[in-house]
C-alpha cells in the first residue's frame, strides 16, 4: 500500500483554543482502518491517523491500484440504519466500504487488439505463461524457427552443449506461480531433472512447457516478422501496431559439422533479417496488435575474424559455435581456442571430452571463470553475495591454476581486499573442467593476440610462436542482431521500451558483468522480473502516463552506437537493465508490491530442486569422469596423483555462515535504513571507486590550481582527528638551553622528548611576564614564566624565595630574537641562520609547563606556523628539520638514535640530556593529546610533502556564496560556519595512502615540469593501452616523456584527500562534464541537503569551495557523506563561483543518555503488561552514539516495540490506566500518541511526488 503518499501530521496544536480556532483542531491518534469491497471477501487494513482525509486515502489507493482515476473511488460508511457516502474533506473511519473498484489488486486494462510476442525463446514462452496465468488468451507468438526454444538453443548451441547454470533456477516455468510444490503442470518444481542438462534436454523442456500450458495453440512458427509499423499517432490511446509477417523455411542441423546453413550464408554482419528463405506455399500476412514485445536475444552472430595467413595454416579452423565445428578434428590434436568468454568454456569442455592433446587458450585478457559450486551459491543467495566473498569462493578453484582471481583485470578492490567490484565485458563462463585441465597442464592460458598463421604455427603479437598446432577454434564473441532496430523503427531504448512507448517492450540478456554484489548467474530470476514489469505496464497504462507527466520516470536511455559503433539500440548492458528495474520499483507502489517475494523464492527453489547433496554428487561425478576418461585416453598418466574436487559440503556450510557474516552489515544497514523510512538508492548507487566517478574536469583557464610541494602537518586530516583528543599520561621535561646574550639558561618544556633533536626555536607569550632567577646554591641562572614559577619550584622540590634570587622581570616581547645554543648538534650548520632564537606568539599559555615552549616545526601545527612567520623555515620546506621516516623511526640524520621508533627513543634522549647536565626535571603529566578516533591509538604530527589548494585568497568569495544559502538553524551558518570561513586556510588535498584516487600529476624529478592529466582518454594516449581502472596499481607504471629534456615524468605518490572527493559528488556522480551535462545543469545547485551538526567543517565546506573558480586538469572523485560541512563550500566556490546548495538543514544529535531513558521506559511498559519486548539498555555516557563505543540501542529493538499493541494504538489494554516513568505520569492519551510512530515509520519512506 502506498502509505508514503498520505502525509503524516505531527504539528503542535493548542487544545485550549475556542471558537473558530477550535474547529481547526484534529486528532493525530492512530487507528486501524478496515477497507471492505462489497460482494467480495477482500479486506484491506491500514494504519492511519484519524485526521487522515478521504482525499488523501483516495490518492494512496489509486497509486496502489496502478494510478487508476481516483475520482472513481468512493467510500461509504454505515450510520445507524442508513449509509453515508464520505466527502473528500471527511476524515477516515474505522470501517469503510470501497466502491468503484473490484479488487485491491491493480485492474487490467482492456485493449481492442491482441498482444504480439516476437520470439519463441525463453522470454517469449515466459511472456505467454504470464498472459495465460491471468486468463489473457488474446496473444500470438511469432518465430522464424519451426520449434520453440529460440536461436540460442536451436542454432547457437551445438550437439555437445550443456546448460552451464543449474536447471533449478533456469527452467522456463521458474516462478512461484508456475513452479511450486502442489502445481502439476510440467511436473511442478524440476526436482528430478539433471543439474546441468544437455542441449537436447533443454529444448525438450521448452517443448514440454509449450504443450502443458497450451502455448502451441498461440504460436505462428516458421514466420519472420519483417517490419513493425505504427498505426495512428504516438501516445494516442487508439494507436496500434502492424506486424508484417513472411512465412519462411527454416533449416536446422541435427548433426555436427558440415557446411553453413542457407540463412547463415545469406545473413549479413548486421543480422538475420531477410536471410531465411520464403515459404511460397504460404501467404504473407499482417498482424495488428495493441501491444507487442520482441525478445531478440544476444547470442546471434559469431563475431567474424580472419587471420593473416589463414590459408597457409594447413589445419582445421572453424568457429566454436553453432553446429559448424566437427569436434572429431580435435581428437589427439593440439588446439588453440581463441577467446575467453562463455562459449570458450563450452569448447574447453567439448575438446576435453573428445580427447584433445593440449589446449592453448589465447585471449587478450584473462576473464573470470566460475566453478559449478560458486554459480549455485550465487543463485541461491539471499541477499546477494558480495564481490569480495565471490572472489574468495573463486579462489578455491583458481588455486589449481596457480592464479589469484583478485588480480584479474576486471576486479577493482581495496587494499585490504574486503570490498570488490567487477567490470567485465563478457559474462562468466561456468564449469569445473577449466580448472581441472589447467591443474593437469592440459590447458594453458596465453594472454596475447594472434598476429598471423603459417603452416601449423600461430604467431602471436608478443613474438611467441605456438607450433605443432592442428586446430584453431574461434570463440571471440557473439554480435547482436542490428536488424532488430530496423524492423522496429527503433531510434532509442528508454528503459526497456522502444522509443519510450510503454506498449513496445524489448530486452536482450544484458551483456557483461558490472557489479559489486551478485544475485544470479542464471536468466531465471531476471526474465521473471522483466516479464512481470512489462505486463504490469501493459495492464496499468494510466500509471505510466501519470508518472511520466509528473517527471518521475527517469529511466536510462540507450542509442545505437553506444559504446561500440556496431552496438544496436536494443542491446543494453547490465547497468542499464538494473537501473530500469530499480527506478520503476521505486516510483510504482503497485509494481513494488509485486516484487517482494523474489529473493525468498529464488532461495527456496534452488535448495528444493538442487540441494547441496545433489549438487555435489553431480559435480563430483562429472569431475571423476574426467579423471577416469583422461587416463583411459592417455591424456594424463595413469599413475598421476588424483586431484580432489576443491569444494566440499563442509566448506559450503562454512560459506553460508561466512556469507551471512559478510553481508550482515550491508543487509542490516539496508534493512534498518528502510525500516527507519529513509529513502536511499541502494540498488542504483554510484561508487566512488568507479572510473566514471574518478574521471573529471578539464579547463584551460587556471586561476587556481594546486600549490606545489607544500607541507601537511598531521598524518590524519583535521576532520578525522577533530573528535580524537584524549587524555594521555605523558612525559614532562624541563631542560635548560644556554642563551648567547644573557649568559643564562632558558627553562623550556615539552611532553614529546622525541621532538627535541628537531628543535629550531623557543616561543614565549609577548604579553606574559618572565623572570630571571639565580640559584643561591650553584649560581645557575634560569629564565622562566612568572605565573608558572611557583609550580616549577614545587615540581623540582625547591623553595622559590629561599633557594633562588630574582634578578629581573621582563615581558615576553622583550625576549624576542635572543639566540641560544642548539640543544643537540645534529643540525648545526644545516638549518637556516635564523634558527635557534626566541619567538613570540599568543598561543603560549599559563596553563601548563614553564610558559616557554619548544618549537619543532616538522611535528607541530603551532610550531610550524610560528617558525614559518619568523622565516626559520620556508613554505617550500627549506630549513625544515625532519629526521623521522614513514615508520616513525629516526633516520641517519640523528645517528645517536638511528632506527629507533620515536616513542622508544624517549628514554635515550632523556639519558643524553641528563649526562650533559641539561635535564632539570623528568616527570609525568595528564595531557590532552590527539588519538585516532577509531583505534584510540596516539597519533604523531609530522610534516610531509603535500599538495594544497589555495583557499585563503578565496575567503571573500566563500563568505559571499555562503550568504546566498539558507540554513536551519541559522546560527550554524551565521556563527560556526561563518567563523570557520573567515579563517579558512589553504587546503591540503593530498594523502600518503595506497587506496584512494591518485592525484593525476606527472612530474620530473626536480618538480620543475608538471603535467596534469585531465581525462582517461588523455592518459590512454600516453599509456598506449586501454585503462579501465584509475587506481594507483593500474596507472603508477605509466611514464610520460618530458617536453623539456628531463627524461620520463612519473606520477606523484599521493592520492586525494577523501574530503576533496566528497565535495566532487555533484559532478563526479554524473560523470560531468564528460556526459550527463544537461542532467547536471538541471540539478545544480541542489535545492536541499542535510547532515549532522558535527559535519560543519567537512562536506559542506568542500562543496562550497569547489563551485567557484575552475581548476584545470583536476580529477573529480566521490561523495562519502560522513563528516559533511565546510568542504562542500570550498569546491563549489572554486569551480562555479556559486554555492552548491540552496537550502540546508543541520541535524541535531541523539545522545546516549536519551537512549538509556528510552530503555528504562520500555521496561516500565513491560512491567505494566503493555508490551512483550523491551529495548535493551546501553551505555549511557552522554556522548554521540558510536559504533565503536556501542553506546546506542539496537534500532530493531525500537521497531519491535513499535509493532506491539501499545504502539499500534490498541486502547483495550490501556483503559483507565496510567503509567509512571520516574516522577512523571504518562497517561493513556499520551501513550496513544506514541502509536503514530509506527505509522510514521511507514510513511517516511520519502516517496516524493
Brief account:
The chain has 1249 residues and is an alpha/beta fold.
How does this structure look, described?
By secondary structure, this protein is of the alpha/beta class. The chain is built from 38 helices and 57 strands. The strands form 17 sheets. A 6-stranded mixed sheet has the order 41-39-40-37-36-44. The longest helix is centred in the middle third of the chain and has 28 residues, at 649-676. The chain is globular, with a radius of gyration of 37 Å. Residues 659-1152 form the Aminoacyl-tRNA synthetase class Ia domain. This is isoleucine--tRNA ligase. It holds the Pfam family tRNA-synt_1.
Secondary-structure topology with pairs:
Blueprint: H1 20-23, E1 30-36, E2 43-49, H2 54-64, E3 74-79, E4 82-85, E5 95-99, E6 115-118, H3 122-133, E7 139-143, H4 150-156, H5 199-212, E8 219-221, E9 223-231, E10 240-249, H6 262-266, E11 277-278, E12 285-289, E13 291-294, E14 301-302, E15 316-319, E16 334-338, H7 342-354, E17 358-363, E18 369-370, H8 372-380, E19 385-386, H9 387-398, E20 411-413, E21 420-424, E22 429-430, H10 433-439, E23 443-447, E24 450-454, E25 457-460, E26 465-467, E27 471-474, E28 478-479, H11 483-487, E29 492-494, E30 497-498, E31 504-506, E32 513-515, E33 517-518, H12 524-539, H13 541-549, E34 557-559, H14 574-587, H15 589-594, H16 598-609, H17 612-632, H18 649-676, H19 691-694, E35 706-714, H20 718-721, E36 725-739, E37 744-750, E38 761-764, E39 769-775, E40 781-785, H21 789-795, H22 800-803, E41 804-811, E42 837-840, E43 852-855, H23 861-870, H24 902-915, E44 919-930, E45 941-949, H25 955-963, E46 966-968, H26 970-982, E47 987-988, E48 990-991, E49 1001-1003, E50 1010-1012, H27 1016-1023, H28 1032-1035, E51 1040-1041, E52 1048-1051, ...
Parallel strand pairs: 1-5, 6-7, 6-13, 7-8, 13-31, 15-27, 16-17, 16-27, 17-23, 18-22, 37-40, 38-42, 46-55, 54-55
Antiparallel strand pairs: 1-2, 3-4, 3-5, 9-10, 10-11, 10-12, 14-28, 19-33, 20-21, 21-32, 24-25, 25-26, 29-30, 29-34, 35-45, 36-37, 36-44, 38-43, 39-40, 39-41, 45-47, 48-53, 49-50, 49-52, 51-52, 56-57
Helix pairs in contact: 3-12, 25-26, 32-33
Organism: Durusdinium trenchii
Protein name: isoleucine--tRNA ligase
Catalytic activity: tRNA(Ile) + L-isoleucine + ATP = L-isoleucyl-tRNA(Ile) + AMP + diphosphate
Amino acid at each position: 500500500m502506498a502509505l508514503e503518499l498520505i502525509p503524516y501530521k505531527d504539528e503542535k496544536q493548542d487544545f485550549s483554543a475556542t471558537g473558530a480556532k477550535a474547529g481547526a483542531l484534529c486528532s493525530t491518534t492512530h487507528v486501524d482502518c478496515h477497507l471492505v469491497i462489497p460482494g467480495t471477501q477482500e479486506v484491506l487494513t491500514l494504519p492511519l491517523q484519524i485526521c487522515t482525509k478521504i482525499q488523501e486515502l483516495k490518492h494512496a489507493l489509486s497509486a496502489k491500484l496502478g494510478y487508476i482515476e481516483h475520482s472513481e473511488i468512493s467510500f461509504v460508511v454505515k450510520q445507524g440504519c442508513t449509509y453515508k457516502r464520505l466527502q473528500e474533506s471527511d476524515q477516515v473511519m474505522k470501517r469503510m466500504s470501497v466502491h468503484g473498484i473490484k479488487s485491491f489488486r491493480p485492474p487490467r486494462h482492456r485493449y481492442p487488439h491482441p498482444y504480439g510476442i516476437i520470439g519463441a525463446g525463453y522470454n517469449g514462452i515466459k511472456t505467454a505463461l504470464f498472459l495465460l496465468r491471468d486468463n489473457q488468451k488474446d496473444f500470438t507468438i511469432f518465430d522464424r524457427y519451426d520449434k520453440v526454444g529460440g536461436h540460442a538453443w536451436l542454432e547457437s548451441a551445438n550437439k555437445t552443449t550443456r546448460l552451464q547454470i543449474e536447471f533449478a533456477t533456469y527452467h522456463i516455468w521458474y516462478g512461484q506461480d508456475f513452479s511450486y510444490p502442489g502445481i502439476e503442470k510440467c511436473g511442478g518444481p524440476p526436482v528430478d531433472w539433471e543439474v546441468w542438462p544437455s542441449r537436447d534436454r533443454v529444448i525438450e523442456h521448452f517443448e514440454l512447457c509449450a504443450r502443458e500450458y497450451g502455448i502451441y495453440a498461440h504460436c505462428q512458427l516458421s514466420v519472420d516478422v519483417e517490419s513493425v509499423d505504427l498505426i495512428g499517432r504516438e501516445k494516442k490511446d487508439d494507436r496500434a501496431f502492424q506486424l508484417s509477417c513472411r512465412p519462411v523455411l527454416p533449416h536446422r542441423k541435427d548433426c555436427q559439422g558440415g557446411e553453413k546453413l542457407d540463412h547463415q550464408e545469406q545473413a549479413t554482419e548486421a543480422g538475420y533479417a531477410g536471410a531465411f528463405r520464403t515459404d511460397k506455399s504460404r501467404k504473407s500476412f499482417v498482424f495488428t496488435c495493441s501491444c507487442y514485445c520482441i525478445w531478440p536475444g544476444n547470442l546471434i552472430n559469431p563475431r567474424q575474424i580472419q587471420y593473416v595467413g589463414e590459408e597457409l595454416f594447413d589445419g582445421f579452423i572453424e568457429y566454436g559455435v553453432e553446429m559448424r565445428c566437427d569436434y572429431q578434428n580435435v581428437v589427439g590434436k593440439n588446439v588453440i581456442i581463441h577467446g575467453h568468454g562463455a562459449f570458450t568454456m563450452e569448447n574447453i569442455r567439448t575438446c576435453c571430452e573428445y580427447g584433445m592433446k593440449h589446449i592453448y587458450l589465447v585471449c587478450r585478457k584473462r576473464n573470470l571463470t566460475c566453478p559449478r559450486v560458486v554459480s549455485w551459491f550465487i543463485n541461491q543467495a539471499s541477499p546477494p553475495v558480495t564481490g569480495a566473498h565471490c572472489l574468495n569462493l573463486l579462489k578455491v578453484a583458481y588455486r589449481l591454476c596457480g592464479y589469484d582471481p583478485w588480480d584479474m583485470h576486471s576486479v577493482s578492490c581495496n587494499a585490504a581486499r574486503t570490498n570488490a567490484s567487477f567490470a567485465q565485458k563478457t559474462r562468466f563462463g561456468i564449469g569445473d573442467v577449466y580448472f581441472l585441465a589447467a591443474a593437469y597442464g592440459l590447458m594453458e592460458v596465453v594472454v596475447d593476440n594472434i598476429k598471423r598463421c603459417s603452416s601449423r604455427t600461430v604467431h602471436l603479437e608478443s613474438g611467441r610462436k605456438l607450433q605443432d598446432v592442428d586446430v584453431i577454434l574461434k570463440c571471440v564473441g557473439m554480435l547482436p542482431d542490428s536488424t532488430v532496430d530496423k524492423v522496429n523503427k527503433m531510434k532509442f531504448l528508454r528503459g526497456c521500451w522502444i522509443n519510450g512507448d510503454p506498449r513496445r517492450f524489448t530486452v536482450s540478456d544484458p551483456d557483461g558483468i558490472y557489479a559489486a554484489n551478485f544475485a544470479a548467474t542464471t536468466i531465471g530470476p531476471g526474465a521473471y522480473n522483466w516479464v512481470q514489469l512489462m505486463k504490469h505496464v501493459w495492464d496499468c497504462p494510466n500509471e505510466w502516463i501519470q508518472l511520466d507527466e509528473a517527471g518521475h520516470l527517469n529511466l536510462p536511455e540507450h542509442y545505437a552506437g553506444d559504446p561500440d559503433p556496431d552496438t544496436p539500440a536494443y542491446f543494453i548492458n547490465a547497468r542499464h537493465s538494473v537501473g530500469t528495474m530499480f527506478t520503476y520499483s521505486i516510483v510504482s507502489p503497485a509494481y513494488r508490491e509485486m516484487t517482494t517475494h523474489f529473493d525468498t523464492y529464488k532461495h527456496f527453489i534452488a535448495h528444493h530442486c538442487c540441494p547441496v547433496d545433489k549438487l555435489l554428487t553431480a559435480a563430483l561425478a562429472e569431475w571423476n569422469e574426467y579423471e577416469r576418461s583422461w587416463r583411459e585416453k592417455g591424456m594424463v598418466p595413469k599413475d598421476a596423483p588424483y586431484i580432489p574436487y576443491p569444494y566440499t559440503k563442509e566448506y559450503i556450510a562454512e560459506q553460508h555462515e561466512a556469507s551471512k557474516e559478510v553481508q550482515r552489515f550491508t543487509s542490516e544497514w539496508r534493512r534498518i535504513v528502510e525500516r527507519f523510512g529513509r529513502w536511499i538508492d541502494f540498488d542504483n548507487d554510484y561508487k566512488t571507486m568507479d572510473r566514471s566517478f574518478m574521471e573529471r574536469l578539464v579547463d584551460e583557464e587556471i586561476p587556481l590550481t594546486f600549490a606545489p610541494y607544500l607541507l601537511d602537518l598531521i598524518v590524519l586530516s583535521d576532520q578525522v582527528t577533530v573528535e580524537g583528543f584524549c587524555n594521555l599520561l605523558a612525559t614532562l621535561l624541563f631542560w635548560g638551553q644556554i642563551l648567547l646574550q644573557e649568559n643564562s639558561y632558558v627553562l623550556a618544556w615539552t611532553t614529546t622528548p622525541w621532538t627535541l633533536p628537531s628543535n629550531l626555536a623557543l616561543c614565549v607569550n609577548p604579553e606574559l611576564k618572565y623572570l630571571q632567577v639565580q640559584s643561591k646554591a650553584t649560581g645557575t641562572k634560569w629564565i622562566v614564566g612568572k605565573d608558572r614559577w611557583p609550580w616549577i619550584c614545587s615540581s623540582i622540590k625547591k623553595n622559590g624565595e629561599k633557594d633562588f634570587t630574582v634578578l629581573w622581570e621582563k615581558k615576553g616581547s622583550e625576549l624576542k630574537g635572543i639566540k641560544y645554543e642548539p640543544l643537540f648538534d645534529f643540525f648545526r650548520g644545516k638549518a637556516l641562520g635564523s634558527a635557534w632564537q626566541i619567538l613570540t606568539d599568543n598561543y603560549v599559555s599559563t596553563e601548563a609547563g614553564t610558559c616557554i615552549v619548544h618549537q619543532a616545526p616538522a611535528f607541530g601545527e603551532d610550531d610550524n606556523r610560528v617558525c614559518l612567520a619568523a622565516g626559520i623555515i620556508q613554505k617550500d620546506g627549506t630549513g625544515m628539520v625532519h629526521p623521522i621516516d614513514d615508520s616513525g623511526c629516526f633516520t641517519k640524520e640523528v645517528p645517536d638514535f638511528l632506527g629507533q621508533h620515536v616513542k622508544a627513543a624517549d628514554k635515550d634522549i632523556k639519558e643524553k640530556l641528563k649526562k650533559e647536565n641539561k635535564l632539570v626535571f623528568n616527570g609525568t603529566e595528564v595531557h590532552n593529546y590527539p588519538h585516532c578516533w577509531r583505534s584510540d591509538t596516539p597519533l604523531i604530527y609530522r610534516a610531509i610533502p603535500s599538495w594544497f589548494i589555495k583557499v585563503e585568497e578565496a575567503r571573500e568569495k566563500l563568505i559571499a556564496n555562503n550568504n546566498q544559502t539558507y540554513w536551519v538553524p541559522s546560527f550554524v551558518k551565521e556563527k560556526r560556519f561563518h567563523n570557520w570561513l573567515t579563517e579558512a586556510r589553504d587546503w591540503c588535498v593530498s594523502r600518503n595512502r595506497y587506496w584512494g584516487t591518485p592525484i593525476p600529476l606527472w612530474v620530473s624529478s626536480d618538480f620543475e615540469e608538471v603535467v596534469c592529466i585531465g581525462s582517461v582518454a588523455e592518459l590512454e594516449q600516453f599509456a598506449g593501452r586501454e585503462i579501465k581502472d584509475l587506481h594507483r596499481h593500474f596507472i603508477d607504471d605509466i611514464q610520460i616523456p618530458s617536453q623539456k629534456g628531463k627524461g620520463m615524468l612519473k606520477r606523484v605518490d599521493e592520492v586525494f584527500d577523501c574530503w576533496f572527493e566528497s565535495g566532487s559528488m555533484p559532478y563526479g556522480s554524473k560523470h560531468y562534464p564528460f556526459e550527463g551535462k544537461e542532467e547536471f545543469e538541471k540539478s545544480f545547485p541542489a535545492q536541499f541537503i542535510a547532515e549532522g551538526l558535527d559535519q560543519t567543517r567537512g562536506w559542506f565546506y568542500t562543496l562550497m569551495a569547489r563551485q567557484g573558480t575552475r581548476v584545470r586538469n583536476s580529477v573529480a572523485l566521490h561523495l562519502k557523506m560522513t563528516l559533511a560541512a565546510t568542504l562542500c563550500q570550498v569546491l563549489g566556490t572554486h569551480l562555479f563561483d556559486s554555492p552548491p546548495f540552496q537550502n540546508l538543514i543541520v541535524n541535531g544529535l541523539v545522545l546516549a543518555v536519551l537512549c538509556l531513558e528510552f530503555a528504562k521506559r520500555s521496561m516500565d511498559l513491560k512491567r505494566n503488561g503493555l508490551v512483550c519486548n523491551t529495548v535493551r539498555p546501553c551505555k549511557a555516557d552522554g556522548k554521540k552514539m558510536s559504533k565503536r563505543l556501542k553506546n546506542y540501542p539496537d534500532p530493531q529493538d525500537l521497531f519491535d516495540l513499535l509493532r506491539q499493541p501499545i504502539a499500534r494504538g490498541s486502547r483495550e489494554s490501556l483503559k483507565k490506566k496510567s503509567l509512571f516513568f520516574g516522577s512523571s505520569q504518562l497517561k493513556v492519551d499520551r501513550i496513544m500518541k506514541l502509536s503514530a510512530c509506527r505509522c510514521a515509520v511507514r510513511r517516511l519512506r520519502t516517496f516524493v511526488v
